[in-house]
Write a structure and sequence with these properties.
8-stranded mixed sheet; 472 residues; 5-stranded mixed beta barrel; globular; BirA Bifunctional Protein, domain 2; 16 strands; OB fold (Dihydrolipoamide Acetyltransferase, E2P); 2 domains; alpha+beta
């Protein structure tokens, strides 16, 4: 028997390369198919998740466990193969492995194993989320998601940004919408009350001594570091208690939020455009096989769409200009257009897909429909906000120049029924050495969904959390 302890395990993605021919290798993975020949040998298709394409293994009947084990292998069985990489006569592959040994780690009963070669719906696969990474589609999604995360960190690290870990538990509502998950250790069957009337819960008796929630954004805490260290970014999980079951909403999702001190809205737009182009370019360059799979099986336009964005110059125009364009478009929108409305996906897609045929950055939204922290413009009606819109989905990035003037920030809080005393530390950033600063947020899952063309956002996160569902 070959000595395998000194032989490092090789990835399938490397074993498939022509320059690997002649090497003796050790491959570990899972069986995708087994085909038996009347000539006394079998072909095993093995995959270890490193690539969407399998490696073919030739297992000869001379192997001591050929009849007893190899001929019983089914889809899902796990193996270790040691052998030589040789040229493959088969179409679509340059190499295959001629096995010297095939060791079986685990079998998968074909009568019970849920993943067979027949087609399986994405809805069913969500019910077996622990197994769906073994499918071609979800393996490809995982690799693309990984590449996007790698690209995100490289983009900011290579530009001198500091990675900051902001809290998951917070007492502040960044968006002011109140759609937050409560964090408590109180006995829900016997809640302490502040007075005899029982009108209010006494959160001073809770673990943190006050009402706390899961964060909807790391932005406010991120600003603390940006106003001390200049350029930072946060990248972590966020939570939104929005009772929505659409294909675009999750209760738990990941957000990337850069914050730049001494930066205005124009600089913010420059970074956002460069950021998206870098992400999409990296995916096209480093995940070409997976992207070809998505173009073939999921959405035939994904590669074309990303390539066009990378090459394009984003159009920039104000919200007011966009409203005029929409009003004179002649289109029959489901949601009527007028100044002051929050634009819907149909409006955003008209601008990107029909009017300009490229990404669009809208700026200067009405103050009444935007968050308290966005910088009030000189007209008193709008704020220095921006949304980056792309074809097919509309908004992919939302951001703004932040309000750095203490008096105006306090008045904006009061106008939105927020108590400035609850944000005393945030206001301190304006009391002590305030500076112009700006930032934005990008949802990781919506980005992965856009890049891959997947129809449901629940299929681009390993274990989706949605209303009524927190399995696995």
């Amino acid at each position: 028997m070959l000595e395998t302890k000194k032989l490092p395990r090789m990835k399938v993605v490397d074993a498939r390369r022509q320059e690997s021919i002649g090497k003796t290798v050790r491959i570990c993975g899972w069986v995708r198919t087994r085909r038996d020949s009347k000539g006394g040998f079998s072909f095993l298709e093995i995959n270890d998740g490193s690539t969407i394409k399998n490696i073919q293994v030739l297992a000869d009947s001379a192997l001591p466990n050929y009849a007893s084990e190899i001929l019983t292998l089914g889809i899902g069985g796990s193996v270790e193969v040691v052998g030589d990489i040789v040229p493959s006569p088969g179409a679509g592959q340059a190499t295959e492995i001629k096995a010297a040994t095939v060791r079986i780690f685990g079998t998968a009963d074909a009568t019970q194993y849920p993943l067979q070669k027949k087609g399986t719906s994405f809805e069913f696969l969500r019910s077996i989320a622990h197994l769906r990474p073994r499918t071609n589609t979800f393996g490809a999604v995982a690799r693309v998601r990984n590449e996007i995360c790698r690209s995100i960190h490289h983009f900011y690290q290579s530009r001198g940004f500091l990675y900051v870990h902001t809290p998951i538990i917070t007492a502040s509502d960044c968006e002011g919408a109140g759609e937050m998950f409560r964090v408590t250790t109180l006995d829900l069957m016997n809640l302490p009350r502040k007075d005899e009337t029982g009108s209010a819960i006494d959160f001073e008796k809770d673990f943190f001594g006050k009402a706390t929630n899961l964060t909807v954004s790391g932005q406010l805490e991120g600003e603390c570091f940006a106003t001390a260290l200049t350029d930072i970014y946060t990248f972590g999980p966020t939570f939104r208690a929005e009772n929505s079951n659409t294909t675009r909403h999750l209760a738990e999702f990941w957000m990337i939020e850069p914050e730049m001190a001494f930066c205005d809205l124009e600089g913010n737009m420059d970074i956002a455009e460069e950021f998206l182009k870098t992400l999409f370019s990296d995916v096209l360059n480093n995940c070409s096989q997976d992207m070809e799979f998505f173009a073939e099986r999921i959405d035939s336009t994904v590669i074309e769409t990303l390539s066009a964005i990378v090459k394009s110059k984003f159009v920039r125009l104000s919200y007011t200009e966009a409203i005029k364009i929409l009003e004179s478009s002649g289109e029959r929108f489901e949601f009527p257009v007028s100044w002051g409305i929050d634009l819907q996906s149909e409006h955003e897609r008209y601008l990107t897909e029909k009017k300009f045929k490229c990404p669009v950055i809208l700026t200067d939204y009405p103050a009444d429909i935007k968050a308290f922290y966005m910088r009030l413009s000189d007209d008193g009606r709008t704020v220095r906000a921006m949304d980056v819109l792309v074809p097919k989905i509309g908004e992919i990035i939302g951001g703004s120049q932040r309000e750095e003037r203490l008096d105006i920030l306090e008045s904006r809080m009061k106008a939105q029924q927020l108590n400035p005393a609850d944000y005393w530390w945030y206001l301190d950033l304006r009391r002590y050495g305030t500076v112009p600063h700006a930032g934005f947020g990008l949802g990781l899952e919506r980005t992965v969904q856009f890049v891959t063309g997947m129809g449901n956002i629940r299929d681009v996160i390993p274990f989706p959390r949605t209303p009524g569902s927190a399995d696995f």
